[in-house]
Design goal:
alpha+beta; Jelly Rolls; 2 domains; 2 helices; 13 strands; 19% helix
Length: 181
């Protein structure tokens, strides 16, 4: 059966409209958050008195020992970090155990400005109460880390940012370059 000119025109119009909708939908898709935080647990309390001690030796720093007399609450959060994105300088109210699940992860203590690189499958300790930043060094791959925070309060922030002026000074001192927003 032959198509009439009107049928062909209607078919072409429908195809063009469908393609336009597909392009518009793709173009308007939201960009991912630079750093997406997904809580994997709520804050959980240990049912009994719980304490912890963790020691780590990082090259260039004195041994870091953390003794948490009252671990009380813990929470687990997964962070997805887009390529090239840097966390603001901050600290935490408790100790953080960090597992690198995907991609590469670079961690920097303000104390020494050394970039410590961690590959997928590796882990590190943020003793808490230490100003630091971290970033995804990749130009094209997301980084996913899982952070388990111990000794956090029952309520309140899990991340405590430094003042903007201090953060800018630390960026300059440590040679941290941030993507322009």
């Amino acid at each position: 059966m032959a198509m009439t000119r009107t049928t062909k025109l209607a078919l072409h119009t429908a195809i063009l409209a469908g393609a336009t909708l597909a392009i518009t939908a793709t173009a308007s898709a939201e960009e991912p958050e630079p750093i997406a935080a997904q809580p994997l647990t709520e804050r959980h309390a240990f049912p009994n008195e719980t304490s912890m001690q963790i020691t780590q030796n990082l090259e260039g720093l004195p041994p870091q020992s953390v003794e948490i007399e009252d671990a009380s609450y813990m929470v687990v959060v997964e962070f997805t970090i887009q390529p090239g994105v840097v966390f603001p300088w901050h600290t935490h109210p408790g100790t953080v155990l960090i597992k690198v699940a995907e991609g590469d992860f670079t961690f920097v203590f303000a104390e020494d400005c050394v970039e410590r690189d961690f590959a997928p499958g590796s882990a590190l300790v943020d003793p808490g109460d230490t100003v630091h930043t971290a970033f995804n060094p990749s130009a094209d791959q997301e980084t996913v880390v899982v952070a388990t925070l111990f000794g956090v309060p029952a309520e309140g922030p899990l991340t405590i940012p430094v003042e903007a002026a201090e953060g800018s000074a630390l960026d300059e001192e440590c040679g941290i370059e941030r993507l322009s927003e």
